[in-house]
Amino acid sequence: MVSCRVPSAFCVTLFVSLLAYYANKHIKQLKTQPSSLTTTNYSSTTTTTMEEIRHRTVHVNGIDMHVAEKGEEGAPVILFIHGFPELWYSWRHQIEALSALGYRAVAPDLRGYGDTEAPATAAEYTCLHVVGDLVALLDAVAPDQDKVFVVGHDWGAWIAWYLCQFRPDRVKALVNMSVLFHPRNPKWKPLETMKAFYGPDYYICRFQEPGEIEDEFARIGTETILKEFYSYRNPGPLFLPKCKGFGHSPDTQITLPSWLTEEEFNYFYTKYEKNGFTPGINYYRNINKNWELTAPWTGSKIKVPVKFIVGDQDLTYNSAGAKDHINKGGFKREVPFLEEVVVMEGVAHFLNQEKPDEINKHIYDFFQKF
């Protein structure tokens, strides 16, 4: 997850926020338009089954990457980028619905996640490594398409912003969720700022010491940790005091959220029980390194068409200053081709799973313009 005002996944940057609800729309015609449907069905359960999703392993950027995909060859590609603690499976509803609506959905496990290879050292999880993986993946699975559509959430949203900064020539349009664009501030290192503002118990600060948070998670158990993250609806910042976990007693029963069945949860659980949390946490351990590596992009803006979606119960939306930026247009200044900001009422962090049909419609309606 990313939370507050400084970059991270289950987190947003300390100095950035959402834009005004209404922005001028830059509508373009899509060269290869998906099939027109008289009755558009955004449900992920009526036309396809999970068994029809294709799985393969592609060697990209020096690692073996697992990718799930659905849709006809030659159809416009949508690249789905997941967050923490998630997997390609977080996009199961979107893969089914958007492929049925004429797109080819491509959803990888990012490096270190699920069935994708996990490099051994934290230094191999910088934004340059991950964006490099995705560019190489597009070269491998969609060599006929110079540009693709992109959808990101949580850490995946942050990576999507980097992709648009580094390689805007590869992105046709972007739908990003939960984590808005955070312009690099050359005066403040992110981790030091977070620690000064929130203290050492802030979860991103707790993630920094190799092995420490993993040992605590191991004592609590993979099942409980995942349930804690998935059921988290507190719009305030997330703190993990040492040896106190999420603040519950060890006997507390954590109920799955209504949007996640036991069967679906077991898929996540099986992968994390096997692989552990370290690879995903290594993304957090590169927050300062990413700040250093992206110095050449200081002041750069996101210059692809964008739609941004966030839940009003998401901790990212409720971080200090975010709502002011909605009204004052700060986000629009940094993302000049931002066309729309959608704030979903009563929805928390994992919005693409909590409200899949609505998210499917938002994605489809936006991408149909191009």
UniProtKB/TrEMBL annotation:
<comment type="function">
    <text>Epoxide hydrolase involved in the biosynthesis of cucurbitacin and mogroside tetracyclic triterpene natural products (e.g. siamenoside I and mogrosides IV, V and VI). Cucurbitacins have cytotoxic properties and exhibit deterrent taste as a defense barrier against herbivores. Mogrosides are nonsugar highly oxygenated compounds used as high-intensity zero-calorie sweeteners; they also possess pharmacological properties such as regulating immunity, lowering blood sugar and lipid levels, protecting the liver, and acting as antioxidants and antitumor agents.</text>
</comment>
<comment type="pathway">
    <text>Secondary metabolite biosynthesis; terpenoid biosynthesis.</text>
</comment>
<dbReference type="InterPro" id="IPR000073">
    <property type="entry name" value="AB_hydrolase_1"/>
</dbReference>
<dbReference type="InterPro" id="IPR029058">
    <property type="entry name" value="AB_hydrolase_fold"/>
</dbReference>
<protein>
    <recommendedName>
        <fullName>soluble epoxide hydrolase</fullName>
        <ecNumber>3.3.2.10</ecNumber>
    </recommendedName>
</protein>
<keyword id="KW-0378">Hydrolase</keyword>
<dbReference type="InterPro" id="IPR000639">
    <property type="entry name" value="Epox_hydrolase-like"/>
</dbReference>
<comment type="similarity">
    <text>Belongs to the AB hydrolase superfamily. Epoxide hydrolase family.</text>
</comment>
<dbReference type="Pfam" id="PF00561">
    <property type="entry name" value="Abhydrolase_1"/>
</dbReference>
<feature type="domain" description="AB hydrolase-1">
    <location>
        <begin position="76"/>
        <end position="185"/>
    </location>
</feature>
<dbReference type="GO" id="GO:0004301">
    <property type="term" value="F:epoxide hydrolase activity"/>
</dbReference>
